[in-house]
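Sample log: Protoheme IX farnesyltransferase.
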Amino acid sequence: MSDLSAVDHGQEAGFGDYVQLLKPRVMSLVVFTAMVGLIVAPVSVHPFVAFTAILFIALGGGASGALNMWYDADIDRVMRRTQSRPVPAGRVGAGEALGLGLALSVLSCLMLGLAANWFAGAFLAFTIFFYVVVYTMWLKRRTPQNIVIGGAAGAFPPMIGWAVATGGVSVESVLMFALIFMWTPPHFWALALFMKDDYSRAGVPMLTVTHGRAATRKHILVYTLLLAPFPVALALTSIGGPVTLVTALVLNALFIRGALRISRRDDAAAEADGYRAEKAFFRFSLAYLFLHFGALLVEASLAPFGLGGW
């Protein structure tokens, strides 16, 4: 856990440091998937309500990021990938990160409840709790299943967006959740394959550390195969259609091919070429998710013209 006094006050924080504290890259995924969940829902939402709802969902995602950086500052300091973050680098005090995270958590959940409905506000509060307490404080440092179970936190945003519009949960929103939930392990394990030393130094029991890279490669393939049916099932629901089905089939084929390629490699070959295949798989995994949700948007935009859906 973070040492609240471990900060170099010789460095002043700039506006960009506080933005970085909110993990804007992660927030972009939260915003995009929540927006898709809201737009494809069968209930129309006033544009102003939709805008404010997405804004508060984004703030909730940022609050989670700030609280994560507060708690994980000790391990962030020893990982090359994270040591330049505002708290471990000493530009923002851990107490500041904690205060900002708590304030944004309360503000975002209350305002989402007022702007949309209290079910959506409570769902956002649960998501923040799950990411900070269940994943960051409990799972991350204790089990190699950290990213498997903890990945649920990143999968909730489209369900929250759907709840903003409908006030509830449906098969469609659960399948959007399942798509992200099953995608998360192969996505992060691919990263761990070429960042293993960081996790070892920090004492984080990522699968590459506890079971080795060979086992991780097999897990990536298994989870990629388990993932494949979910986007197809989503394409066959009321929010899907030909565009989403073709997208699912093509992206699944490419993703499985990448996972097969990784599973057949050994550490010597991967290290010799700088983990080229693993890095390519990781980059494609980002496109995989964004393109699936982008296809849902295309389907929704075609619906008024009688072209989208089944």
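Observation: The first helix runs from residue 15 to 21.
Observation: The two ends are 51 Å apart (CA to CA).
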